[in-house]
Design a protein that fits this description.
By secondary structure, the protein is mainly beta. It has one domain (2-270): Porin (Beta Barrel). Helices cover 6% and strands 57% of the residues. It has one helix at 2-18; strands at residues 58-65, 73-81, 87-97, 100-112, 117-131, 135-149, 154-161, 167-169, 174-176, 180-189, 193-202, 208-217, 222-230, 235-244, 247-256, 260-270. Strands 1-2-3-4-5-6-7-10-11-12-13-14-15-16 form a 14-stranded antiparallel barrel. A two-stranded antiparallel sheet has the order 8-9.
Length: 271
C-alpha cells in the first residue's frame, strides 16, 4: 500500500509539472520534448501530420522510465506504412502497474499534400483502471495536426489533442481528459542543426515552453540532442541517436531537480 501511495504522489506531481496530454502518452526523443514541428520521424501520440512524411514501412518500440521508478514506466509500440494516397499508423501505450494503469490506442491517418503542407488526424481510445470491482473506464477522443514549410529552412506546426473535450464517466463523477493546443517551429541551420521551439496550452494549466537542438553528424548517421522545457521550473534534456542500416536507436534523458532523472529509449526499424 505504501508503494501505491508513493506512486500516486509522483504521478500527480508529474502531470502538474509537465502539463502533459495524459500520463500514458510518453515523452519524446526530441530535445526539450519540443516535438510538434519535428519531422524526421513520426512519433506516437505526437503531431499526426509528421506521419505524412514517412516513405517506408516500419515499427518502433519505446520504453520510458520516469524518475527511475518502474511503476511509472510507459511501454509503447507503434507501426506505420505509406500508401499512394494516405499514410496509416497505429500506436499502443501502457502506463503503470497492476494496481493502477492506463492504456491508449491510436489509429492515425496523414497525407503530405505538397512539399509544403502536411495534415494528420488521429483517433484515440483511452482507458484507465479504477479498481478490481469497477475494472476499466474508457473514452474516445481525437487529435489533429498540421505542418507548413514556409521556406526550405523554416516550418511551422500546430497540434490539438482532445479538441472534442472527451471525459471519463463513472457512476459518481466525470473526469475530463486534458485538452492541449500546441504550436511550434523548426529552423534548420546550415543543414546540420535543427532548432525546435514549442508552446503548449492545456485548458487548466499554465503555458508550457520547450526548445531543443539536434545536431546531425555524418549524414544523420549520428545525432546529438540538447534542450529544455518548463513553465515554473527549468528541466534540461540531453540525448543521442544512431542509425545502423535500417535500424535506429535513440535515447533521451531529462532531469528534474526534485524528482531526478527520467529516461526514454526508442528502437525503430524501417524496410
Amino acid at each position: 500500500m505504501k508503494k501505491v501511495f508513493y506512486s500516486f504522489f509522483i504521478l500527480c506531481f508529474t502531470v502538474q509539472i509537465q502539463a502533459q496530454k495524459t500520463t500514458v502518452i510518453p515523452s519524446t526523443i526530441v530535445g526539450g520534448n519540443a516535438a510538434v514541428a519535428y519531422c524526421e520521424n513520426w512519433l506516437p501520440f505526437q503531431n499526426p501530420a509528421a506521419l505524412g512524411n514517412v516513405q517506408k514501412i516500419g515499427f518502433a518500440l519505446i520504453y520510458e522510465n520516469r524518475y527511475i521508478t518502474k511503476e511509472l514506466a510507459n511501454k509503447v509500440l507503434n507501426v506505420w506504412f505509406p500508401t499512394k494516397y494516405i499514410n496509416v499508423g497505429g500506436s499502443f501505450s501502457h502506463f503503470g502497474y497492476s494496481e493502477y494503469n492506463e492504456m491508449i490506442t491510436a489509429l492515425t491517418f496523414a497525407r503530405k499534400f505538397s512539399e509544403k503542407f502536411s495534415l494528420g488526424l488521429e483517433f484515440d481510445y483511452y482507458t484507465v483502471y479504477l479498481s478490481a470491482s469497477k475494472h476499466y473506464k474508457g473514452a474516445f477522443t481525437t487529435q489533429i495536426g498540421a505542418s507548413v514549410a514556409i521556406t526550405d529552412e523554416f516550418s511551422l506546426a500546430f497540434n490539438a489533442f482532445n479538441p472534442v473535450f472527451s471525459k471519463i464517466k463513472t457512476e459518481y463523477a466525470e473526469q475530463p481528459l486534458p485538452t492541449v493546443f500546441s504550436i511550434g517551429s523548426l529552423y534548420r541551420i546550415k543543414g546540420t542543426v535543427d532548432w525546435l521551439v514549442q508552446f503548449d496550452k492545456e485548458i487548466a494549466t499554465p503555458l508550457r515552453w520547450a526548445t531543443g537542438f539536434e545536431y546531425a553528424i555524418n549524414e544523420k548517421q549520428f545525432v546529438i540532442r540538447l534542450g529544455a522545457y518548463g513553465y515554473d521550473s527549468f528541466v534540461p534534456t540531453f540525448g543521442a541517436g544512431i542509425r545502423v542500416a535500417d535500424f535506429k536507436f535513440d535515447i533521451n534523458a531529462d532531469y528534474n531537480s526534485v524528482l531526478g532523472f527520467s529516461l526514454i529509449g526508442r528502437l525503430a526499424y524501417e524496410f
